[in-house]
Structures are given as structure tokens and as C-alpha cells.
């Protein structure tokens, strides 16, 4: 069990690391969005184009990064959406059991289905090196890869959550997690 706890700690550390990067991407996205608005109106005043489709698409892509990479970080922080009508009143052990069931029967299978059905879509995008049809648009294939990466990261973080909840459910000194 100690090895499993170590694995959970390593997974959590990695998730925490890239979660902090995603956190800062929110500010970058907002900055680009503000520039897109200011540049559009300022450009009209001075008669110059100060923004571009690539900046607008970059803002979308950063949002994609935040959404797709932030999912596992949100799971780690236990900030995902949950209907707490019954859950909030349960004992720690029962909450752990529900979390174990959730990871095993919902999270991992759902992520597996996403990976299975999106694999060809992402592969095709890489095969043709898909780019945006808009003028000065960005490549689409790298961002579409997140459709596969996100559920993989969720499965990995789900394994960490599974380990931590098993420790709680089996009463194996939860202070070690």
C-alpha cells in the first residue's frame, strides 16, 4: 500500500505542477482577449488593423488548454460538480466508497470511450496537418490532440483518487496521503 500511496503522491505532484501553469494561462487568455477588443476599436480609430484572426484563435486555443488540462487538476482539488444532497451527510468511509465506485465505473470508462471515439478524428487531423480555414489561422491538429490528452490525464488523476480513497476506505492511516 505504501508504493500505491507514493504513486498517488507523484501523480498529484505532476497534476499540481501543470495545474499551476494552466492557472496562469487564464491571465494570458484574458490579456489576449483585452488586446483583441482594444486593438479592434483602436485600429478603427487610427485606420490600422491591430488584431488578427490568429490572435482570436490563440485566445480560443488557450481556453481549450485551460478547459482540457484543467479537468484533472479540478478532480485533484475535488472542485468538480457534484450533487451533494446525500453525499455531504455521509461518513468519510462512505464518501470514499462512492468515490471509488465513481472512478471505476464512471470516470475511467467514460474517459476510455472519449479516447476510443476521438482517436481517429485526432489522427486524421494530424495526417493532413489541419489548419484553420480563416486568414492567418493557426494549425488545428495540435489543439485537437487535447481531446485525447485530457481523458488520459483524467484517468491518471483518477488512479490517484482511487488510491487515496481506497486508503481511507480500508482505514490505512489516511494521514499518509
Explained architecture:
The protein is built from six helices and no strands. The protein is an all-alpha fold and 177 residues long. The longest helix has 45 residues. The mean pLDDT is 92.
Instruction: Name the helicity range.
Output: over 70%
Gap between N and C termini, in Å?
11 Å
What fraction of residues sit in β-strands? under 5%
Instruction: Identify low-pLDDT runs.
Output: none
Q: Largest sheet, if any?
A: none
Question: What is the average per-residue confidence, as pLDDT, rounded to a whole number?
Answer: 92
Outline of this structure?
The chain has 177 residues and is mostly helical.
Key traits:
6 helices; elongated; 177 residues
Task: Produce the secondary structure layout.
Elements: H1 2-46, H2 53-76, H3 84-87, H4 92-127, H5 141-144, H6 146-169
Helix pairs in contact: 1-2, 1-6, 2-6, 4-6
Amino acid at each position: 500500500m505504501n508504493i500505491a500511496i507514493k504513486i498517488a503522491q507523484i501523480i498529484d505532484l505532476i497534476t499540481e505542477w501543470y495545474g499551476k501553469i494552466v492557472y496562469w494561462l487564464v491571465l494570458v487568455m484574458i490579456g489576449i482577449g483585452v488586446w483583441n477588443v482594444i486593438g479592434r476599436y483602436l485600429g478603427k480609430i487610427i485606420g490600422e488593423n491591430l488584431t488578427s484572426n490568429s490572435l482570436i484563435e490563440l485566445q480560443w486555443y488557450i481556453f481549450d488548454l485551460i478547459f482540457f488540462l484543467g479537468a484533472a487538476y479540478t478532480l485533484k482539488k475535488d472542485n468538480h460538480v457534484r450533487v451533494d444532497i446525500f453525499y455531504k451527510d455521509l461518513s468519510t468511509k462512505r464518501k470514499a466508497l462512492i468515490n471509488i465506485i465513481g472512478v471505476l465505473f464512471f470516470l475511467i470508462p467514460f474517459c476510455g470511450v472519449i479516447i476510443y471515439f476521438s482517436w481517429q478524428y485526432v489522427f486524421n487531423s494530424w495526417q493532413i496537418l489541419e489548419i484553420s480555414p480563416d486568414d492567418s489561422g493557426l494549425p488545428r491538429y495540435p489543439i485537437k490532440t487535447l481531446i485525447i490528452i485530457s481523458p488520459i490525464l483524467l484517468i491518471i488523476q483518477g488512479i490517484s483518487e482511487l488510491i487515496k480513497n481506497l486508503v481511507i476506505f480500508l482505514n490505512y492511516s489516511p494521514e499518509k496521503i
